[in-house]
């Protein structure tokens, strides 16, 4: 039977391009890496790689093995994750990764209730793109995100379910011309400068879809990367914007107006991705009982 460690070494060499780089990645000496490759080559019975002045290149046979080795690597990662979760069943930690919107505005009431009931539990919350992409899967209990955000590549025992919806509201400066109307329609917004999120955000996608339905393409806009910037810039008078109702209910300090849209129901969805029930830690199970209940 092929040795998994030797196969993963071949993958590391393929991805890094040299034995020295693979040794650094695997925290092994170069001689150890060379020995693994030698044994794997002997087992296969034909050359798997060649050295040249630019490093190491795989032969055709070596390249043929890579897709299956990548699947092996993912399988080992999933097994390690399961083992780590079982080891943490009774530990007092809760690890959450969430988009900034949900971490700042949706989760706090649930976290507050959880803290009241389980005050000895340590909670780790990571938000933003850095943590979304780089968090070790085995150390994350649950992901919260808006619909257009994709969770990282996760083991098969994770499942995704809808979790709350966001109603989007139009917001304007207090002295804006639109404030004289009790309600407005989407076409009335076409001539005003729009303050909105970056492409790909759930709010931006929903608004663009609604504009598209009416053949409207905003020509004047300011693009920002977070909801706080939308609120502050609207308050300053730089344009009109779109914010989640829950954000507006939380940020009473913003001096802005909100105006209902007639005949429009702009809603985005949130999602939660967590392990299947049998794979959850006891801490996570208690937290999700609160999340899935009405406070």
From TrEMBL:
Species of origin: Acidithiobacillus thiooxidans ATCC 19377
Protein name, as recorded: HTH-type transcriptional activator CmpR
GO molecular function annotations of the record: DNA-binding transcription factor activity; transcription cis-regulatory region binding
Domain of life: Bacteria
The entry's keywords: DNA-binding, Transcription, Transcription regulation
Keyword Transcription recorded: yes
Lineage, uppermost ranks: Bacteria, Pseudomonadati, Pseudomonadota, Acidithiobacillia, Acidithiobacillales
Chain coiled-coil ranges: none
Domain (HTH lysR-type) ranges: 1-59
Entries under InterPro entries matching the protein: LysR_HTH_N, LysR_subst-bd, WH-like_DNA-bd_sf, WH_DNA-bd_sf
SUPFAM superfamilies reported in the protein's UniProt record: Periplasmic binding protein-like II, Winged helix' DNA-binding domain
Annotated family: Belongs to the LysR transcriptional regulatory family.
């Amino acid at each position: 039977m092929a040795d998994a460690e030797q196969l993963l070494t071949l993958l590391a060499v393929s991805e890094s391009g040299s034995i020295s780089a693979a040794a650094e990645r695997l925290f092994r000496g170069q001689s150890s890496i060379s020995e693994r490759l030698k044994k794997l080559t002997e087992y296969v019975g034909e050359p798997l790689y060649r050295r040249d002045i630019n490093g190491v290149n795989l032969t055709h046979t070596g390249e043929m093995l890579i897709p299956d080795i990548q699947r092996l690597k993912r399988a080992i990662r999933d097994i390690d994750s399961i083992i780590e979760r079982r080891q943490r069943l009774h530990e007092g930690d809760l690890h959450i990764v969430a988009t900034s919107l949900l971490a700042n505005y949706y989760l706090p009431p649930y976290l507050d209730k959880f803290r009241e009931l389980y005050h000895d539990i340590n909670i780790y919350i990571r938000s933003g793109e850095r943590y979304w992409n780089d968090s070790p899967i085995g150390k994350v209990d649950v992901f919260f995100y808006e619909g257009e955000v994709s969770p990282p590549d996760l083991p098969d025992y994770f499942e995704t379910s809808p979790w709350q919806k966001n109603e989007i509201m139009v917001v304007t400066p207090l002295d804006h011309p639109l404030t004289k109307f009790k309600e407005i329609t989407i076409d009335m917004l076409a001539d005003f400068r729009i303050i909105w999120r970056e492409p790909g955000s759930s709010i931006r996608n929903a608004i663009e879809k609604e504009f598209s339905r009416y053949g409207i393409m905003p020509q004047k806009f300011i693009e920002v990367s977070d909801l706080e910037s939308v609120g502050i810039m609207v308050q300053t008078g730089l344009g009109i914007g779109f914010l989640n109702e829950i954000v507006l209910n939380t940020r009473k300090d913003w001096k802005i107006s909100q105006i209902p849209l007639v005949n429009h129901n702009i809603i985005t969805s949130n999602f939660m991705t967590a392990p299947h029930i049998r794979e959850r830690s006891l801490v996570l199970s208690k937290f999700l009982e609160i999340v899935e209940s009405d406070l």
